[in-house]
Amino acid sequence: MKTINALLFINGEPPESFPDPEKFDIIGCTDGAFHYLKNKGFTLEKLDFISGDFDSGSGIDMDGFQQRIIYTPDQDRTDFDKALEILVQKNVQHVTVLGASGGEMDHFLGNLTVAYQFRTKLEIRFYDAFSEYFFIPKKFRISGVRKKMISLYPFPVADGIFTTGLNWPLNDGALDMCSRIGTRNFAVDDDVSVSYQSGDLLLFIGQQYL
């Protein structure tokens, strides 16, 4: 079965540049992200849907896009949450998310929590000006990261952690959001592997080399 890849823009810090739309099967945005896509010259015709409650989109000219609007008025869920549910319904497996960080930090923390809730339904990868970050499976390996900043963040705890390729390795280690976290490490090898027995881990990969 072909993997369906989606690109989703949400209402945080606007991306500095856009990935090639042709690499994605579905492209969507929340109503709050529509304004910066329009202002930054994104080819709006590439959008497959615009979703949200439109409380942050007042005054935005959406003429010509009415057929692509998915109105999601549920105030008990965030626009990001509802957009991910749309992608699940469209049988998407992998989603690249831009605009999740920056601005009001409660939104950023909320976005991480939403991603945690969807982690078994979608492979979600966030990108911003500083890093790429995502929840990783119990066994994970990545290449091409030598001298890049690598952070492991427990959500909220993770146990039985083993790593290779990091400057400060973990050997059956434990991380806890309230006591010990694994931020600001860096890769000394081109390949880094991480495994853990229980809990959940967010992996951050710095965009810049040290």
Polypeptide structure, described:
The chain is of the alpha/beta class and 210 residues long. Helix content is 16%, strand content 39%. The protein is built from three helices and 13 strands. It has helices at residues 31-39, 79-89, 105-117, and strands at 5-9, 26-30, 49-52, 69-71, 94-98, 123-127, 131-136, 139-142, 148-164, 171-176, 182-186, 192-195, 198-209. Strands 1, 2, 3, 4, 5, 6, 7, 8, 9, 10, 11, 12 and 13 form a 13-stranded mixed sheet that branches. β9 (148-164) and β10 form a beta hairpin.
Q: Extract low-pLDDT stretches.
A: none
Cα distance, first to last residue?
39 Å
Percent of residues in β-strands:
35-45%
| Number of helical regions | 3
The largest β sheet comes out as:
13 strands, mixed
**What does the average pLDDT come to?**
92
N-to-C series of helices and strands: EEHEEHEHEEEEEEEE
Q: Name the shape in a single word.
A: elongated
Count of distinct strands:
13
Radius of gyration: 18 Å
Structural class: alpha/beta
- Helical residues, percent: 10-25%
What is the compact description of this entry?
With 210 residues, this protein is of the alpha/beta class. Helix content is 16%, strand content 39%. It has helices at residues 31-39, 79-89, 105-117, and strands spanning 5-9, 26-30, 49-52, 69-71, 94-98, 123-127, 131-136, 139-142, 148-164, 171-176, 182-186, 192-195, 198-209.
Notable traits:
single chain, 210 residues, alpha/beta, 13-stranded mixed β-sheet
How are the elements arranged and paired?
Blueprint: E1 5-9, E2 26-30, H1 31-39, E3 49-52, E4 69-71, H2 79-89, E5 94-98, H3 105-117, E6 123-127, E7 131-136, E8 139-142, E9 148-164, E10 171-176, E11 182-186, E12 192-195, E13 198-209
Parallel strand pairs: 1-2, 1-5, 2-3, 3-4, 5-6
Antiparallel strand pairs: 6-7, 7-13, 8-12, 9-10, 9-11, 9-12, 9-13
